Amino acid sequence: MIECSKIEYSGTFLIGERKYTFSRAAVSDAKQISVIYEQTRIDRINYKTKLSEDSPLRFEKKGGMFIVMNEEEITEQIVSPDSFWAVIKDENGNIVGSLWSCMTNEFYKGSRYEHAENCIYPREIAVSSESGGKSIAQAMYVTCAEAFLKAGYQIGIGDLYRVLKYESAEGVFHTDQINIPSRMAMEAIGARFDGTLPRRNICLDGLTVTIEPQVFVFDYGKIAALSSSFFAECGELRAVRRE
Fold this sequence. Notes:
The chain is 27% helix and 36% strand. It has a single domain, classed as Gcn5-related N-acetyltransferase (GNAT) (Aminopeptidase, 3-Layer(aba) Sandwich), CATH 3.40.630. It has helices spanning 30-40, 47-51, 59-62, 71-79, 134-150, 180-188, 220-225, 227-230, and strands at residues 10-15, 18-24, 83-89, 95-102, 121-127, 155-168, 171-178, 192-196, 200-204, 207-219, 231-234, 237-240. A hairpin with a 5-residue loop joins strand 3 and strand 4 (95-102). The model has no long low-confidence stretch (mean pLDDT 93).
């Protein structure tokens, strides 16, 4: 297998009339990525909007992140030899999608997923609120799968959070939410639910969230094979097929 730092990843595609470019992230991209990450943040300031079951912006509808990397932390991962950071940019050079993958995942330590063979672990995907949403996420999964397969990686193991409880100064609130759009995007490209990891608490400033990771396995061979059904040839480019 080729080490993460040497995986080749670049190209272009269309969604409707709009042209997008995908590539490995550069250090100069870290600031834009951090802005997208901030759009996803869930904290003690906005948790009612992000987690309340009667909110149209709740977690199961819009997703979100509890632990958000800043520009410096993102830069460290972009240059790390054990990380692969992919971005999709629109015709104006604005980043609309980001996928961070690694050779390891510390949260899988001691589990049957810790030392999977021929595996690269997709850690975090983020899509700009102004982007094409589901199509951008699926395009990122498919193009990355093609690159990973060429580099010798057969599978990926990632997870989605199931949120079960959150606690603030205002009380303890029980819920049961999973990011449905993310799950649908993953299942649409063939990711398979494989089990759960032990529940754990994410402790933030003024907010504690109880989550249960839902583990999914990505078969990169099968996902790459979907490329022809996801993309249509369009001259010298590929175009996302209309749903």
